[in-house]
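New here. Invent one.

***
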Amino acid sequence: MGAGLAEWLAVMPDGVDGPVESARQRIGRLSRQFEQVLRDVAEEYGFSTGDWQALSALHRSGRAAVLTPKELGDRLGVTSGTVTVRIDRLARAGLVERVAATSDGRSRPIRLTRKGRARWAAATKKRTEREQALFTSALGQDGLADLNSLLARLLTRFESEFGPSSPHDALRQE
């Protein structure tokens, strides 16, 4: 247990379970570290983590799929203004394109371009390679399998209590 965590546990009220609090804190800290990997790789590929979320949502929709800005915003959990800014930025970069002309640009569907799909795939490959190196250097393949088994059990228990989580990472950042 790190010094910061030991200090935090020392001031927690009586009855706080130290091992549970330690696990919760570590999971939170790891989550922030994963976000850092995303930010670093996104920057290397010329987009923000929010842009990556949008590209990922479009990618998950299928090769020929299109999404309206509202559908994209609903999937990402962001406002229509945020979606508009992201779409404009991604369109200027040639990563998405608007399809089907309408009088209202806010409802005009978008899709990934070839360039967008290729950039998303390259960035995702780089991210997973970095994470694989971090996991396997710390845990090895057997330790990673054990961790996945434990996390699956923990997630199942939490979801039985609170309902299903999103099956995809959702960084709600602007």
About this structure: Helices lie at 3-10, 18-44, 49-60, 69-76, 80-92, 114-162. The chain has a mean pLDDT of 87. The radius of gyration is 20 Å. Residues 20-162 form a domain with the Arc Repressor Mutant, subunit A fold (CATH 1.10.10.10).
